[in-house]
Amino acid sequence: QVQLVESGGGLVQAGGSLRLSCAASGSIFSINIMAWHRQAPGKQRELVARITSGGMTNYADSVKGRFTISRDSAKNTVYLQMNSLKPEDTAVYYCAMESYWGKGTLVTVSS
C-alpha cells in the first residue's frame, strides 16, 4: 500500500518562509509527476506546483517567483520551498504522486 506523508506545515508571519516535504512509502516506482495542491477554506482545491521526472516545473501564477518545487526521486520525496508567504497562502497543502494523495498539512500565514 502506498502512503504519502506531508510535513513542514505550521504558523508563520507574512513574509516568512516554510519548507514542505512529502515522502512516499510502499510499492511505488518510477513516479513521473509529483505535485503540490492546496485548498483554502471555502475554496476549491488548486494546483500549486508540479515537477516531472525530467525536472520540468509548472507553477500557479499566484506563487511564481515565491515558491520552488523540487524532488529527490531516489527517496520518492517532493519538496515545496515557500518564501515571501502571504495570508492568502493559508491553506491545507496536499502532495500528489501519480494517483496517490497525502492527507495534507496546514499552512497558516498571519498578517
Q: What's the short story on this structure?
A:
The chain is mainly β. It contains no helices and 11 strands. The strands form 2 sheets. Strands 2, 4, 5, 6, 9, 10 and 11 form a 7-stranded mixed beta sheet that branches. The chain has a 4-stranded antiparallel beta sheet with strand order 1-3-8-7, with no helix packed on it.
Explained architecture:
The chain is globular and about 40 Å long. It has strands at 3-7, 10-13, 18-25, 34-39, 46-51, 57-59, 67-72, 77-82, 91-97, 100-101, 105-110. The strands form two sheets. Strands 2, 4, 5, 6, 9, 10 and 11 form a seven-stranded mixed β-sheet that branches. It is built from no helices and eleven strands. Strand 7 (67-72) and strand 8 (77-82) form a beta hairpin. With 111 residues, the protein is mainly beta.
Topology:
Elements: E1 3-7, E2 10-13, E3 18-25, E4 34-39, E5 46-51, E6 57-59, E7 67-72, E8 77-82, E9 91-97, E10 100-101, E11 105-110
Parallel strand pairs: 2-11
Antiparallel strand pairs: 1-3, 3-8, 4-5, 4-9, 5-6, 7-8, 9-10, 9-11
Notable features of this structure?
111 residues, 0% helix, 4-stranded antiparallel β-sheet, 7-stranded mixed β-sheet, mainly beta
What is the element string, with H for helices and E for strands?
EEEEEEEEEEE
Gyration radius (Cα, Å) is 13 Å
Distance between the termini: 40 Å
Instruction: Enumerate how many helices there are, as a single number.
Output: 0
Indicate the proportion of strand residues. Answer: over 45%
The mean pLDDT is: 96
Query: How much helicity do the residues have?
Result: under 10%
Describe the main β-sheet briefly.
7 strands, mixed
**Helix/strand/pairing class, anyone?**
mainly beta
